[in-house]
Structure prediction request, 513 residues.
Amino acid sequence: MASFVTDAYPTGSRQKTEHGSSELLTALDDSAFTKRHGVIYGTALAGHFLDGFVINTTGVVLPGVIATYHITSKQAGYLSSALFLGMLVGAAIAGIVSDRLGRKFPLAVCLLIFAGFSVLAALSWSYPSLMAARFCQGIGLGAEIAVVLPYITEFVPSRHRAPLVTTATAAWLVGLPVSALVGTAVVPTFGWRSMFYIGIAPVVVSVVMLAVLPESVRYLLRKQRHAEAQRVVFALSTARPAPSAARPADTAANVPSAPEQRTAGSVRKLLTGRYLKFTVSLWFMELCAGAFLYGLSTWLPSILEKKGIGLIGSLAYTAIITAAGVLGALLAGYVAKRVGRRPAIVCGLLLSGLLCLWWGAVSTTLPVIVIGCVATFFGSGIAGSTLFVYASELYPTFNRATGLGWAAAWQKAGGLVIPTVIGWVLALHSSNYIFFVLFAVISLLAGISGLVATFETKGKTIEQIAAFLEPDRTHNVGESLVGAAASPSSPSSPSSPHPVTGFTAQYDQETGR
Prediction:
């Protein structure tokens, strides 16, 4: 829909007035959440939901695949691992591509990839062919996660950033129980292949994305495509930028330095300076979070079956337990906004770990469901969703998708390793309690890592976060804003014992970030 941006100027706004990059970003961040925001956000949400839906088909189809291809539990674990290996590759590559080529087109292509290979999975003629299809499908699934969350982070008003990113994660998590419920309805009648035919639906959303979504304003400004950025801001924002005396393309705030041009989409930059300890901790937490989330969604139906629950019952109970994670994700944004990212992540992980020890010790159906719901509420819901908010805020625009993509890649590495490990454990006829102890240890270790090294981003714009973590960079838009705020008379001036941040307690209270 080409007119989405260009025809959205208010009366009298179609003029040659120039606006600085800082003014455009301020208008974008301070806007109310409008219907146009809703259209963009809803479209991105639909694609993210389908990503979660398609991922969880592994757990739904696994019993049928085992019966069709006559494979062992150990071999069955390889199917999920093939998917997550593809997701790891997709997440790692897509972030780099998106930081260099933009958000809109790569996002639409991601959906086409995992929808297209869903057809091949449905038509698979052998177990290796199914594994190959799921690997290729995983590339698109992992890539979508790496692109969509930076995109949302960069266009939503700042005060709504945490709730909207966690709601997007909730939409992704909704795909997990919905997949289980759909599987309960269609697999007994139409067979496991029917789930992959349903997985073709993302093609429609991909086409809508190409028609509706504008490019990221922050990406456009970094590429010095100022006119396009200005049109998008006027289309979206209810706050109007003040005129600037100089064209932003000619100011230091908008011109990427030569090193930045070379390091856009750089993994190395994630591991330098102040970013090093935060990146390593983030990657470890995502590794554990992926093991927790994907290990449960893949093997929980089979574990429940081993407890004497039938196929339909095990799928239904898995849907209920994973749905608790959705509720946690919906509340995570408000928790993170109120208490901060670090407390939400750390407390969620530690509580989930302790609950898993209790979960494995009970045997009757009701306690299994209730404790499982609470464990996933805190683990994959509160902590897991807040981790993605944190990852989408931590890095500067020129490296944001790369940073989140590699964080997501480590999450997929957890999903790659844990299903195979569980398959080996179950093949040894181990106690079911070992299954839950494993998830308890994973969550507790992640919580300790978060306690030791998590940078609190609450109350800061994404430019201010980059300014703190890279104090020597003065060419970025956000850092120019911070530098202006940090005058010698300011409490955040270089002479102050506190680092330059450019925000005050009153500012935090007024914005509610």
In short: The domain at 20-241 is CATH 1.20.1250.20 (Growth Hormone; Chain: A;).
